[in-house]
Write a structure and sequence with these properties.
By secondary structure, this protein is an alpha/beta fold. It is built from 13 helices and 17 strands. A hairpin with a 3-residue loop joins strand 1 and strand 2.
Length: 436
């Protein structure tokens, strides 16, 4: 029996968990044990997720919401059942969750609503009821933070370029936390939307959602949350967050690639025009014009990612069996081990919070005298898989005065032995490059 099927009161046993993940049994680099510490980039998949996708393809594969035959009915049931399961994982109603290809598409969907509504208003096109809140005028402001992933920065830059709105950002401190005092001068009467990360993929910082949302609400701004690094690692209930939209990815939470989710408050989704148009998302079509279906169908044009949704639902089952509070507690212990180990090595500097409070398990660092890319290669030669580079957060690296970092990001299938293997390989790397 896998630990995911066992009573969650059992002592955490990462060895048993690893047995559920076929890829973690393989070796790399001349027979070395794979120490996978790159889950902030993408997580590995348990056998139950792989089996769920395969079972769907073998038994019910068909076009959903269309055919009248039994396979189509079963495929539709599987798809909408998966939506309901995934929604329940984050405390949402099924009808408020839109499937996207990834979180990047979800964030672009929200951003496009502003440039789309603004363009339509200029030409006198009819907007959905409430659509005026997405219309921007020159001088209106969009607020992000200095720790955003490019997926939550570049789309807003594009909106500003198209509408004349101004992009502003909440700065971060030298420790890698939001400067909430400075935020008071950033969010103001011209702010129309505040979009920020729940948990930084580079710094590991967990942001105070309530504090940022309250500042946005005081000026009636919409609030968008990038939860890619939080939903896989801690219990998140979107219904208790004072935000209007939450985007996250499936592949970072044990699910398949090619699927993301966007939760929106129903009054926000109802007021938005679609991002992608075509088949399946329409209500009526004539040669002159079209009307669109209600959400979430309005935002799911074309053939949907049915098998991926089924797989992601299975991932939610797996995570719930473990317990998200238990997952977070386990990662907290591994993070402390990582921070303590790095602090004991001369010439190593953590980029981000060095205190294991309001931070996630992604730990970025630099080593004096070694470029992150060179370090990553030597670690890989020893079987340790980490991420190197700017982590799609180039402005954050500039703010922290580093060109790039090495990032270690453990997850539920890692244990202390993995952290110690990484720290040992790091010490060997310092000797290899002559900086020890």
């Amino acid at each position: 029996m896998s630990i995911a099927e066992a009573d969650r009161t059992r002592v955490w046993d990462a060895t048993s968990i690893r047995e559920d993940f076929p890829i973690l049994a393989r070796t790399v680099r001349d027979g070395r044990r794979l120490v996978y510490l790159d889950s902030a980039a993408t997580s590995q998949k348990p056998r139950t997720v792989l089996d769920a996708e395969r079972y769907y393809y073998e038994t019910a594969n068909a076009a959903v919401h269309r055919g009248a035959h039994q396979l189509a009915e079963e495929a539709t049931e599987a798809y909408e059942g998966a939506r309901a399961r995934i929604a329940s994982f984050v405390g949402a109603r099924a009808d408020d969750v839109v499937f996207t290809r990834n979180a990047t598409e979800g964030l672009n969907l929200i951003a496009y609503a502003f440039s789309n509504a603004t363009a339509k208003s200029i030409h006198g096109a009819v907007l959905p009821d409430g659509g005026e809140q997405f219309v921007l005028a020159p001088g209106d402001e969009i607020v992000v933070t200095e720790m955003e992933h490019h997926a939550n920065l570049v789309p807003w830059q594009e909106v500003c370029a198209k509408t004349g709105a101004l992009l502003r950002w909440i700065p971060i401190t030298d420790e890698g936390r939001l400067d909430l005092d400075a935020m008071k001068d950033i969010i103001g009467p011209r702010t129309k939307v505040v979009s920020f990360t729940h948990q930084s993929n580079l710094l590991g910082t967990i942001n105070d959602v309530a504090a940022v949302s309250q500042a946005a609400r005081e000026v009636a701004a919409l609030v968008v949350l990038d939860a890619c690094q939080s939903i896989p690692h801690q219990a998140v209930d979107v219904s208790t967050l004072d935000v209007d939209a939450v985007a996250w990815s499936g592949h970072k939470m044990l699910g398949p690639t090619g699927i993301g989710c966007l939760w929106m408050r129903p009054e926000i989704a109802d007021a938005m025009s679609p991002f992608i148009t075509g088949g399946s998302m329409i209500e009526t079509v004539t040669m002159a014009e079209s009307t669109f279906a209600a959400p979430p169908t309005r935002f799911e044009a074309g053939v949907p990612m049915v098998a991926q949704a089924v797989g992601l639902a299975a991932a939610c089952d797996y995570l719930d069996a473990l317990g998200m509070h238990e997952v977070a507690a386990h990662e907290h212990r591994l993070t402390q081990r990582t921070l303590d180990g790095l602090a004991a090595i001369p010439g190593v500097r953590v980029i981000g919070p060095t205190v294991n409070e309001s931070r996630g398990s992604a730990v970025s660092f630099v080593v004096d005298g070694i470029h992150p890319h060179d370090l990553g290669q030597v670690l890989d030669d020893r079987g340790v898989a980490v991420r190197v580079g700017h982590h799609c957060a180039w402005p954050t690296c500039r703010r922290m005065n580093v060109p790039a970092t090495t990032r270690v990001s453990p997850y539920l299938y890692n244990d202390v032995s993995d952290i110690d293997a990484f720290l040992s390989a790091l010490q060997d790397s310092r000797k290899f490059f002559g900086v020890a």
